[in-house]
């Protein structure tokens, strides 16, 4: 009851009713004309008018306050907050709250980390997490329920963040490590690598063996395994991650095909060797290069003994290989000269002497025949068409029969690895 009285007192305080003198005079005349009881009626009507105006004012003020209180929407807060109805500031806040939406979306970015429930850190790109709970705010003596929005972290997000952190670490490590290009190699080659990084790098061999190359160190080894070699790093789970790679190839060995015997068709002791291996090649005889880039080559084997013929090839992968074959020569090459002739023979080929190879080879030469008893030159020629018939050019007579004479040939343009001088003996029968 006291609250109602205080409310009336506050409402009627400083309230003044307008005074109209002409209206009161007119009312007084009418009452006086009605007689004796008119005086009482005057006061009753006056009191009724005053009471009606008073009650109307009270109802108007009370209705206005009720509308004002219903219009105000309190602002979201973490704690209870009192709002005074007669404050101009609260009226402004109430008008602003009418423009706000009933729910709030919170966007989290990678640069905005929001601390929520029990200290958990949540970060992400444009993630909206909502949980509506009711709070009570004290206002004007009444409890008003409002909706409050609290961020709740999803359980799965923590796992995703761990993966992102690992990937960030790997990416950062990748950016700081330098892996220069490594060319392919061939089997059993020496290989070295200098790690100029400030962290260790790893070599993964074809057999999946991991070899650590520490920072600033040099690694050197024989590439004894063919296949793929990878250079890279280890992540936090000790899993190898390749950054560059190279391949070790096994050289393709050339197959050689040789004749069974020497061929003197051109007056030379030739042994033909051929290969079907593609790529560049180099032919070698007893360690000395003879020819290059030929699929077939004929070796001249002038000396007695075992000779080794080899071919060094470079295949399509750039790998070198050497294939070899050996051959045994029973006699020294001596221009295929016979050791006797008979000027009186019925066989035309036996009536004269000249080394057979000189008749087949297109090589300038000089041949002389010497008497071993006194060193006198008995015959001299530079043409394969002029052989010695046994005549002594000094006397013009036939030399003595059944005696050995020395012959000597000097080649002006000998073949590779060939001795330019040949000496032998021949018997005149």
**Strand line-up in the sheet with most strands:** 5-11-10-7-8
The tally of domains stands at: 5
Compute the gyration radius: what is it?
62 Å
Number of helices: 6
- CATH level 1 name of the largest domain: Mainly Beta
What's the SSE pattern?
HHHHEEEEHEEEEEEEEEEEEEEEHEEEE
CATH architecture label name of the largest domain: Sandwich
**Silhouette:** rod-shaped
The fraction of residues in strands falls at: 25-35%
Number of strands: 23
Please describe the biggest sheet, giving its number of strands, its sense, and whether it closes into a barrel. Answer: 5 strands, mixed
Residues in helix, %:
10-25%
Low-confidence stretches: 67-95, 97-149, 156-161, 163-174
CATH fold call of the largest domain: Immunoglobulin-like
Distance between the termini: 173 Å
* Global mean pLDDT: 76
Structural class: alpha+beta
Structure description:
This protein is of the alpha+beta class and 429 residues long. It has five domains: 70 residues, no CATH class; 62 residues, no CATH class; 84 residues, no CATH class; 74 residues, Immunoglobulin-like, CATH 2.60.40; 89 residues, Immunoglobulin-like. Helices cover 22% and strands 31% of the residues. It contains six helices and 23 strands. The radius of gyration is 62 Å and the shape is rod-shaped.
